[in-house]
Design goal:
By secondary structure, the protein is an alpha/beta fold. The chain has helices spanning about 80-85, 120-130, 160-170, 195-210, 240-250; strands at about 5-15, 20-30, 40-50, 55-60, 70-75, 95, 110-120, 145-150, 175-180, 190, 230-235, 260-265. β1 (about 5-15) and β2 (about 20-30) form a beta hairpin. The longest helix is centred in the last third of the chain and has 16 residues, at about 195-210. It is globular and about 60 Å long. The relative contact order is 0.14.
Length: about 260
């Protein structure tokens, strides 16, 4: 079955980190008024490689829906076909995409949420935050507590830092927590791995609300797909990080349905 192909034109690109060779790309799809997707979904990019073979690579949408436009965020990888093709595009050049696809999306209604990302795993998380806290002043968070725990090695690899800092400054219920695993002495922010800071959030939240840890198991008579929780974690990044966060949350009695994840490797 062939899905519909869209032609997307590059309107803007920026290098988010020289050391990580991370690029932010903004596209528009000509001929349509709206490219409808749910924040957190991805698009397969389709191209024919130099050997004449049709190649496909999925990239998370790094923005909330905005008319016929969408953003991508990706690292250049040595020898990678798409990871070099896309950053090397000239403004005005086009790519072919399918989709949107994917189930890494916010559960509604919005609850207290711990958003966890490393590296370009922040792409779909940016879509969540743009949707919850759009620039037009609307607020879809319902006043829930939202934490963004973003882990990377060095300060120069904190993607979208100014955007998230500004968003957190406008919304008291958004807590932006970048943490560095290779922090220099002069770094005054958080240090270490994301799962350590997620654990602290869970413990402090439970204490504040007077909830027991580990959390009691849900009613066994309720089917898993009908379970609803007052807090969810959304985790996106490399396999080891996702597994570490899942393991830590499971230790607090969290149900697997409370942990929504997407792995990048």
């Amino acid at each position: 079955m062939h899905r519909e192909l869209y032609t997307a034109r590059l309107e803007r690109k920026a290098c988010l980190s020289e050391t990580a060779q991370c690029f932010h790309l903004e596209f528009a799809i000509d001929g349509i008024a709206e490219f409808a997707f749910v924040p957190g979904q991805f698009v397969p990019v389709v191209a024919t490689d130099p050997r004449g073979r049709l190649e496909t690579r999925a990239y998370s949408l790094a923005s909330a829906p905005k008319g016929n436009r969408f953003d991508l965020c990706l690292n250049r990888v040595e020898g990678g076909y798409f990871s070099n093709l896309l950053p090397d595009l000239e403004i005005g050049a086009t790519i072919q995409i399918e989709g949107p696809l994917g189930f890494f999306t916010l559960r509604e209604p919005v609850t207290d949420s711990i958003l966890v990302a490393t590296g370009t795993g922040v792409a779909p998380i940016r879509g969540f935050l743009q949707w919850m806290f759009p620039e037009d002043g609307a607020d879809r968070s319902g006043g829930r507590e939202i934490w963004l725990v973003y882990g990377t090695r060095t300060e120069g690899e904190i993607y979208y830092r100014e955007e998230f800092e500004a968003m957190a400054a406008r919304h008291a219920n958004l807590h932006y927590l970048p943490t560095l695993s290779r922090a220099p002495e002069e770094w005054s922010g958080l240090r270490g791995y994301v799962q350590e800071h997620v654990a602290k959030i869970v413990e402090e939240r439970a204490a504040k609300l007077g909830q027991p840890l580990p959390a009691p198991k849900p009613d066994a008579s309720i089917p898993a797909n009908q379970l609803r929780f007052d807090v969810y974690a959304y985790v996106c990044g490399l396999n080891n990080m996702v597994s570490a966060v899942r393991e830590r949350l499971a230790g607090y009695g969290w149900h697997r349905k409370q942990i929504v994840s997407e792995r990048y490797d």
